[in-house]
Amino acid sequence: xxxxxxxxxxxxxxxxxxxxxxxxxxxxxxxxxxxxxxxxxxxxxxxxxxxxxxxxxxxxxxxxxxxxxxxxxxxxxxxxxxxxxxxxxxxxxxxxxxxxxxxxxxxxxxxxxxxxxxxxxxxxxxxxxxxxxxxxxxxxxxxxxxxxxxxxxxxxxxxxxxxxxxxxxxxxxxxxxxxxxxxxxxxxxxxxxxxxxxxxxxxxxxxxxxxxxxxxxxxxxxxxxxxxxxxxxxxxxxxxxxxxxxxxxxxxxxxxxxxxxxxxxxxxxxxxxxxxxxxxxxxxxxxxxxxxxxxxxxxxxxxxxxxxxxxxxxxxx
Length: 317
Ligand code: ATP
Known about the structure:
Bound molecules: adenosine-5'-triphosphate
Helix content: 40-55%
GO molecular function, one term: ATP hydrolysis activity
Strand content: 15-25%
Distance between the termini: 45 Å
Shape: globular
Largest sheet: 6 strands, mixed
Number of helices: 14
Subcellular location: Cell membrane
Strand order of the largest sheet: 6-9-10-3-11-12
Membrane topology: Multi-pass membrane protein
GO cellular component, one term: plasma membrane
Order of helices and strands: HHHEHEEHEEHEEHHHEHEHEHEEHH
Main location: membrane
Structural class: alpha/beta
C-alpha cells in the first residue's frame, strides 16, 4: 500500500515544489518519470540487452533549440516558466563527440554554454532539431523511452528526495532490493554511518518536512539510489554548492564508486574529476570549441586554459 500511495504523496509535494521553486527539469523527470515533449515511435524497440558492455553515447552533429512556449506541453512546467524570461535561440550548434563504453567525458564551459542541455538530450527529454543522439549505437528516437530511462542514471545538483522513508526513496530505484542490498549501497555511497545512527535507521522519514539532510547528504543518498539502479550510463551534474571539506571528500568517494565501469558524462566543476576524465569537451555558446585531455588542453592555451586559471586551479580539489 505504501508503494501505491507513496508516489501520490510525493507527486503532490513535487507540484508544490515546481510552482514555488522551479526545480530542475531533470529532477522532475527523475522523480515523476514524466514524458512531456517526446513520445515513442509506433515501432520503437527496447535498447539491446547487451548494453552493459556496449553502452556508448554519441552526439553526431547535434543542433538544438528549446521549443517555443506554444510548442511546449503543459507538463514541462520549467520550460514554460523559463520561456517567459528567455528568448529562444539555437542552444546547441553542430555538437559532435563520442563517449565510448566505460569512458568518462567531462563537459566544461561557461554558464549557459549548453552543458545541461546536452545531458537532457542524452536522456531524450527533448528531441534534437538537427543531427542524431545515439546510445549503444541506436538513435534515441527509435528506442523505447522506458529502456532509455532504465539505461541512464541522472544525478542532478540538488538531488530530490520524496517526503518518505530513506528505504522508500531507495526502493524507488530498485523495488525488489533486500535490506542487505540497501545497506551495501548506502555504505558505498558513504552515507551508511549517518543512516545507521538515526533512531529509525532506514525507516527515517526524510525530505522538507522530515529529517533534514544537508546538500552533501542528499547527494550521497541520490548516489546510493544510483548504485542500486546500476544503470550502464551515468549523467552527473557535479554540485557547485559549497560543501564542507568532510562532506566534499565523502561525496567525491561516493561519486568515484558510482562511476566505476560505467559510461559517464559529467558536467564537471571539480578539477579532480576533470583530470580523471578520458576526454574533456569544452563548450562555449552551444558549440564544442576544444576537446582533449587536461594536458592537451592546457598546452593548447585556449578557453580551457583560461577557465582552468580563473576557476579550477584556485579551488583545485
Ligand atoms: P550552467 O553552467 O549555468 O548550468 P549550462 O552550460 O548547463 O549552464 P544550459 O543550462 O544548457 O547551460 O543552457 C544553455 C542555454 O539554453 C542558455 O541560454 C539557457 O538560458 C537556455 N535554456 C536552458 N534551459 C532552457 C529551457 N528549459 N527553456 C528555454 N531555454 C533554456
